[in-house]
Design a protein that fits this description.
four-stranded parallel β-sheet, 9 strands
Length: 270
């Protein structure tokens, strides 16, 4: 296994939850002429509008990037977006070879970044051994690029007899601490979480991201509530910080809507 691509993947993972709707990318610049080879630059993408992983790695490497190899988890982009093309930065820095884990599924990039590098004399290699792991990091991004649809994860806590709730006389969790920690990880990886009003009324839940990890923006909490029964004094509404949307119908009380909106809740009547 290539330890340099392993490090690039680890760096990319630090951007999960901080990059949406863009992909998480990690890059390292390596001097092959140094003893045992040496990483001279590292970078990972964190949010829209800031330098991409490749540019950050090149910035750290400085002049040592000339004649070096770059390992990157996703094909470098070659168009002007919020940031200048990474392909231009790679070529200008004098990188001799780029090893990528996978091609970018974005039609604005797909194959074009590699072609621009090759046309400029940069050797390009796709290390398919790491393609699956690189794709897992950006499952939602890849799904959207290929289908135009958001990736939806269905989560359910289920008892051994196949039910989704414990008996009425059994209070407390039906899941373990490990499972609940995994739920927080799922929430951190997501842009939004959706539930029905029945769950909210039964559990007085918050549905927040309590992973403790940094996010680019708050997790959007969505409640399907046809009659607008969400209590304004519920923990979900009381803790609203512009991150709660209730989807209702014309059957919802106008007074209840006003009270929820006064707490910052976004109410959509459909």
């Amino acid at each position: 296994m290539n330890r340099f691509m392993e490090e690039a993947l680890e760096l990319a993972g630090r951007g999960v939850g901080r990059v949406s709707p863009n992909p998480a990318v990690g890059a390292v610049v390596v001097r092959d002429d140094a003893p045992d080879s040496e990483i001279v630059g590292r970078g990972f993408y964190t949010a829209a509008g800031v330098n991409h992983a490749e540019a950050l790695a090149l910035l750290e490497a400085g002049e040592l990037a000339r004649g070096a190899t770059m390992y990157v988890t996703l094909e470098p982009h070659g168009f002007q977006g919020r940031t200048p093309p990474c392909t231009d930065a790679i070529i200008a820095a004098g990188i001799k070879k780029v090893v990528a884990a996978m091609e970018d599924p974005n039609p604005l990039v797909s194959g074009k970044g590699f072609a621009q590098l090759a046309d400029a004399g940069v050797e390009v290699e796709i290390d398919t051994r790491f393609a699956h792991r690189a794709a897992q990091l950006n499952e939602a991004f890849i799904h959207f690029m290929r289908t135009g649809l958001p990736l939806v994860t269905v989560k359910a806590a289920v008892t051994l007899d196949g039910k989704i709730a414990a008996p009425e006389d059994n209070e407390g969790w039906i899941t373990s601490e490990t499972a609940r920690a995994h739920v927080q990880k799922l929430r951190h990886h997501s842009d939004a979480i959706l539930t029905g009003i029945g769950t909210v009324l039964a559990d007085d839940c918050r549905l927040t991201d309590r992973s403790g990890l940094e996010r680019a923006r708050p997790l959007l909490r969505i409640v399907l509530d046809s009659q607008l029964r969400l209590p304004p004094e519920s923990r979900m509404a009381a803790g609203c910080e512009g991150d709660l949307m209730v989807v209702t119908t014309s059957a919802g009380s106008a007074e209840r809507r006003r009270r929820l909106e006064a707490k910052g809740v976004r109410v959509e009547v459909l």
